[in-house]
């Protein structure tokens, strides 16, 4: 687990330590310092049309420390805009022709140093979570020089993780991928010498699925996975491609910050990390199969133990995070099935690139386990069997209890992905 | 609505058993217990019927009845489609 030590807030400091780090954005190499200079009101909700403007707003906050909510322009609809104005923000749409400001009905004093995140809103409307640049800065202490890929949507927790690293640490370069470049990021990354990349398991699966050879040409020394349950199959596939790289997975969220970092190449974390309080470190616990975290780095107003809503299961000496509590458990005729564990069995099949497992209403049993899979583009030579429903049912039947075997398995042609780079699970 | 014939449902039932390496006998009087067709298989068969017809089956509609043979399963699902 990574140790994150507290340090004084950077709010209001004139010069972030990484301000001369190179940043590749829109295919152009510049530095943090050379990004456009902004004049922002406070508190401001900044809508960035692209990555360059988002980075400029992040630097503005790092220098001036004024209250900021930063997000991509596409994430704020009319209702959200009204909500932000109502909460006292000036809504500022950035763009090449200048900034357009909408003033709040009832202005309020700004809170210096405050940074707001809009959560991904996978379970309803996005909500605001309060942070500071300090509480978003996970990586501290000297780091080896790296060129980081940033594939995330501006203003999300994961985006800030990469951005704060480059802003606060000299020698941490950044290569930003715009949404339209996402499918071909390995070419961009190889061209700019990217040697560290962070993405969701879905992001990595999609990249392996599209062009594993192109991925292998990126000189990666650090691969990081997070944002979704991380299974052994994806860790093993990346290890095969990058035998010498450090492959890590991180459990982090807007609510609790970065709480778990695992570097040993295995899914889950060691069971002896549970209930071990240590100063400055998050404490991990399990209550009623739910991961509970008490963290020094949680969002504002979330002091104490935070129920994460993520379901965990202890398997052998590891604690596996299997999925969201409200969607992971499928009750098949009174027997509990973890969708995440079934998904892990499917993705461990050498010809499966991606899988989604859900419960479907069924007679007699109430619900049944069903699945969707995307096959790997090229048949693995060691596996002669065609990938069809019957073959996958047999594969699962050999590895799961009978009631957990998905009986209806649809084969899709493309891995579905959302703006957050997560699959819609 | 799209309705499957008894023979079409029989084909689906053969598929359900076939996926598990089992064979559906030709005799409608064959006991489900004997051929290893259980509640999970029955549920799967119902989902297959729903997928073929594009209609949800309403299992609340019919009263309880004894389903012990291959013929019982086929009769039940044929009847159920008509009650939509």
UniProtKB/TrEMBL annotation, chain A:
Residue span of region Disordered: 1-20
Any one Gene Ontology molecular-function term assigned to this protein's record: medium-chain fatty acid-CoA ligase activity
Organism superkingdom: Bacteria
Domain AMP-dependent synthetase/ligase: 106-284
UniProt feature coiled coil, ranges: none
Signal peptide location: none
InterPro entries (UniProt xref): AMP-bd_C, AMP-bd_C_sf, AMP-dep_synth/lig_dom, ANL_N_sf
Segments forming domain AMP-binding enzyme C-terminal: 344-419
PANTHER family xref list: ACYL-COA SYNTHETASE, MEDIUM-CHAIN ACYL-COA LIGASE ACSF2, MITOCHONDRIAL
Family to which the UniProt record says this protein belongs: Belongs to the ATP-dependent AMP-binding enzyme family.
Protein name from the UniProt record: Acyl-CoA synthetase
